[in-house]
Amino acid sequence: MKTIILSTLLGLAATCLAAHAQTLPQDKTVEVPGHSLRIEVPAQPHYMMRDDFLPFAGTYDLSNGDTLQLRRSGTLMYARIGNQDEHRIVAAGRNAFVALDRQLKVRIDHHADGSVGGELVMVVPARQLADGTTQGEHVASLAFPGR
Question: How do residues 26-41 score in pLDDT, each as one tens digit?
Fold first, then answer.
C-alpha cells in the first residue's frame, strides 16, 4: 500500500515539474510544424509508366460522399472530383499526384487486403452560406474511407 501511495505522489510531482518546465516567458514563442495542407507541384515530377498508373486509374469514394476519378489519356493524366472540371495531374511520387493548376493533390495507398486508403487535399472554392455570409476559398483535406 505504501508503494502505491509513494508511486502516485512521485508521479504527481513529476507531472507538476514537467508542466512547470514547459512554460515560456511571454516574449518567447515556439512554432510547431503541423500537417501541411499546401499544394505544390514538384520541381521534378516522378516519371510514371502507363503500367505503373493502371492500379491508380478508376473512381474512389471520399469521406464527404463525393468521388475522385483518375484517368490517363495517352501520356497525360487527369483527376476529377465529382462533377467538377478535370485537372491535369503529374506524379509526385510512386503513389502521389498533384494537379498542375495547384487545385488538388492526392495520395493513394493500396493495402494488401485489397482496401484503399489515402488522402485528398483540395482547394474548396468560395461559396455563399445559408445564413447569407460568404465562406472564402480554402484548402481542405478528405480521407478515403477504409473497408
Answer: 665 655 555 557 788 8
Q: Which residue has the cell 505544390?
A: 40
Instruction: Specify which residues 67 forms β-bridges with.
Output: 61
More confident residue, 18 or 113: 113
- CA dist 100 and 90 (Å) reads 7
pTM over cut 0.85: no
How far apart are alpha carbons 132 and 114 in whole angstroms?
Answer: 44
* Distance, CA of 108 to CA of 33 (rounded, Å): 23
Residue whose cell numbers read 487545385: 103
The cell numbers describing 127, all together, are 461559396
- SS3 string of 69-96? EEEEECCEEEEEECCCCCEEEEECCCCE
Tell me the pLDDT tens digit for each residue of 3-26.
444 444 445 455 554 444 455 556
Place of cell 514537467: 18
Task: Count other C-beta atoms under 10 Å from residue 96's C-beta.
Answer: 19
